[in-house]
Amino acid sequence: MDDFVIKPASCTPQQANVLTESILKMLVTDMRPLSMVDDEGFKEMIKQFNLDYHDNYLPGRSHFTTLMEKKYHATFDKVKETFRGVNSFLTLTADVWTSRATEAYLGVSCHFLTEDWKMKTLNLSTMPLEERHTGANIMTWMEEVLAKFDILPTKIKAVVHDSGSNMVAAMRLLEEKHGWASIRCAGHTLQLIVNTALKETTISRALGVARHLVEHFKRSELASTKLKMKQEQMNVKQHALIQDVSTRWNSTFHMIERLLEQRWPLTATLSDPDVTPRGKHYFDLKPEQN
Questions:
Q1: 205-259 residue pLDDT tens
Q2: pLDDT band for position 137 (50/70/90)?
Q3: Would you state the pLDDT for residue 274?
Q4: How far apart are CA 244 and CA 256, in angstroms?
Q5: Taking 80 as the threshold, does the pLDDT of residue 56 lie above it?
Q6: How far is CA 246 from CA 50, 88, 191, 208, 211, in A?
Q7: What confidence score (pLDDT) does residue 57 get?
Q8: What average pLDDT does the chain have?
Q9: DSSP letter at 237?
Q10: Would you say 165 and 98 are in contact if contact means Cβ atoms under 8 Å apart?
Q11: Is 276 helix (H, G, I), strand (E, B) or coil?
């Protein structure tokens, strides 16, 4: 009798607008693909939350695309309005980077102090780059970003950037043209210093062995399983090994730190003939490398 006596909760157009805006906010905040709203699992979830909204109001991907474009333009206008009210100088952070899909982008962020002395940062652009990343082109692209937000070049005080030759060349041109101070990123400079130190023969060989060891456990399900067993037997924290990244010196530090933490479980695992066949102990670190 419930189907006849209990009526499902209805959803007014006003409530539907609130729910649609909430979904849009979730897509933006979590950086989810717009196609998600057409997925069966997503629709089933919405159906459980509010059947009437699911049946009569839930928009499809094309509608959310339109809403997303409107949200972008509204946010863009809000950022431009923010800059019109800034009386202090601005500084920029610029970086040319490559995505996992080997697509190049120019990222430009802006930083300034509010009237109550709080630092505020706004991302101005993540611009796809299809032309050569020459110093002259980078200079032009950065000027285009500022023009897009109606920011006068005279408002810019300095630009923080890495030590890439093309970026350095672009900053030299901008310094000559607009008087912007060119400041090399301290983190990137430290990375170059550490990289030079890590090239020392003894250190380089030890790191090579360490990376080989980590790769072995990452690729071998047997070795990984045995390591977890040894960690449990020795009452050592069951942490996974860390593979370093060449462009992040602190990842190399964390890799070595984790290997030292797991030294005895690793040694015990490598001593297992099922993991390391006789005569193939090339994963072992030499005493002088520990």
A1: 999 999 999 999 999 899 999 999 999 999 999 999 999 988 889 999 999 999 9
A2: very high
A3: 78
A4: 9
A5: yes
A6: 49, 38, 10, 12, 11
A7: 93
A8: 90
A9: -
A10: no
A11: coil
Separation between Cα atoms, residue 104 and residue 132, nearest integer Å: 10
Closest CA to 205 of 137, 135, 150, 282: 282
Q: Torsions phi, psi of 237, nearest 5?
A: -55, 135
* Helical residues (DSSP H) of the chain, grouped into ranges: 2-5, 13-29, 40-49, 51-56, 61-84, 135-148, 165-178, 186-198, 201-219, 221-233, 249-261, 263-270
Is the confidence at residue 7, as pLDDT, over 90? Answer: no
Backbone angles phi, psi at 164, to 5 degrees: -60, 140
User: Taking a C-beta distance cutoff of 8 angstroms, is the pair 46, 53 a contact?
Assistant: yes
CB atoms within 10 A of CB 227: 24
Q: Is 47 exposed, middle or buried (0-12, 13-18, 19+ CB in 10 A)?
A: middle
DSSP string for 2-15? HHHHSPPPP--HHH
Structural contact between residues 161 and 172, judged by C-beta atoms closer than 8 angstroms? no
**Distance, CA of 168 to CA of 173 (rounded, Å):** 9
Residue 177, judged by CB atoms within 10 A of its CB (0-12, 13-18, 19+), counts as: exposed
Its pTM stands at: 0.72
Q: Would you say 171 and 182 are in contact if contact means Cβ atoms under 8 Å apart? A: yes
Please count the residues of the chain: 290
Is the confidence at residue 278, as pLDDT, over 70?
no
pLDDT tens sequence across 58-97: 999 999 999 999 999 999 999 999 999 998 999 999 999 9
Residue type, position 24, single letter: L
Rounded CA separation 219/212 (Å): 11
